[in-house]
Amino acid sequence: MKVLIVGSGGREHAIAWSVSRSSKAEKIYCAPGNAGIAEYAECVDIGAMEFEKLAAFAKENAVDLTIVGMDDPLVGGIVDVFEAEGLRVFGPNKAAAILEGSKAFSKDLMKKYQIPTAAYENFDCAEEALAYLETAKFPIVLKADGLALGKGVLICNTLEEAQEGVKSLMLDHQFGAAGNTIVIEEFMTGREVSVLSFVDGNTIKTMTSAQDHKRAKDGDQGLNTGGMGTFSPSPFYTKEVDAFCKAHIYQATVDAMKAEGRPFKGIIFFGLMLTEEGPKVLEYNARFGDPEAQVVLPRMKNDILEVMEACIDGKLDQIELEFEENAAVCVVLASDGYPEKYDKGLPISGLEEFQKHEGYYCFHAGTKFDGDTIVTNGGRVLGVTAKGKDLKEARANAYAATEWVTFANKYKRNDIGKAIDEA
């Protein structure tokens, strides 16, 4: 098979690595790709939002399957463009990708179909949102309705903070049109867990659990980011939690989307909060998480292309997902200053070390070639991932491997997976 992957981050690198291990993969393209993805794929200079150009490329090069990694093109309708051209593509169409594209839609869906989630109200008028806050309990959570690079969620401890948050989202348009509508919801406490799943419109098969670390600094301090590191599996995701989620959340979501005339094919990412009242949905994503993919895919035994084709063809019920009986930890190496201001174009050294050690991976998130030299090209630069027999060993291995790599403004959190010690 000839495969085209759409995207340029660590998630797409993990997908490219996984596809490269498939017995079905003959040729891999990635648009636009990055310096790490270039090890497995021919990088193509077409942007992820250039749907017509991407579809034309897929046709001209007889691409058998296109895998869309990123949220923006999915929500924008790339799958509809490809399907209209008769091209096979993995990911939800525009009608289904609204599950991630609109938090107001997903909250209303959960309420309608009694899927456990936090109490909430939606607002498209700043004055009404501010009036509601006068009666609210704190802390409280504000969410931009649309896509905001994983950063459109504000946890507000006081009325003043919440008023400022409404102003920045709805009046100052900090995240552009994404904040035209906002969700105000109750603040939930508990452990966060991420569960990724494959879906074929009817059947859902969940992958192994993971946990992300969203805040920029140690101790979950600092600004929200796209994710500073992950571990898999989560020791807090017990058999009892899994049984509850299967009964009340996973299949219920797939059935709800089908009932709404929006059958979902692709990846549903369930962001869960394990509260005292039981698991509740924090958020849905319509694609692999980043950096969750970097710890989940290296542990998956299945041929990823077989699973994706089964999703497209409605035959996922014939697949049994299998994962290694081990653990993986990913520590993101970022540019100091992320997620605000940071320098780019800084040479990276030490990457060759990962070729010498089995069970260690370096997934590129923000890199490019400057001549023959690989340089930084983003806020999140690399996802250093390592396996181990258990979480503690995987964590020690991942942190040891972060020392193999150097670049001028390298920054990382030092407490990724610290929660493991409390399990």
UniProtKB/TrEMBL annotation:
Keyword Nucleotide-binding: yes
GO biological process, one term: purine nucleobase biosynthetic process
Cofactor(s) in the UniProt record: Mg(2+); Mn(2+)
Domain ATP-grasp residue range list: 107-313
GO molecular function, one term: ATP binding
UniProtKB keywords: ATP-binding, Ligase, Manganese, Metal-binding, Nucleotide-binding, Purine biosynthesis
Listed InterPro entries: ATP-grasp (IPR011761), ATP_grasp_subdomain_1 (IPR013815), PreATP-grasp_dom_sf (IPR016185), PRibGlycinamid_synth_ATP-grasp (IPR020561), PRibGlycinamide_synth (IPR000115), PRibGlycinamide_synth_C-dom (IPR020560), PRibGlycinamide_synth_C_sf (IPR037123), PRibGlycinamide_synth_CS (IPR020559)
Catalytic activity: 5-phospho-beta-D-ribosylamine + glycine + ATP = N(1)-(5-phospho-beta-D-ribosyl)glycinamide + ADP + phosphate + H(+)
Listed EC numbers: 6.3.4.13
Coiled-coil stretches noted in the UniProt entry, renumbered to this chain: none
Pathway noted in the entry: Purine metabolism; IMP biosynthesis via de novo pathway; N(1)-(5-phospho-D-ribosyl)glycinamide from 5-phospho-alpha-D-ribose 1-diphosphate: step 2/2
Family per similarity comment: Belongs to the GARS family.
HAMAP family: GARS (MF_00138)
PANTHER family per UniProt: PHOSPHORIBOSYLAMINE--GLYCINE LIGASE, PHOSPHORIBOSYLAMINE--GLYCINE LIGASE, CHLOROPLASTIC
Protein name: Phosphoribosylamine--glycine ligase
Taxonomic source organism: Faecalimonas umbilicata
Gene responsible for this protein: purD
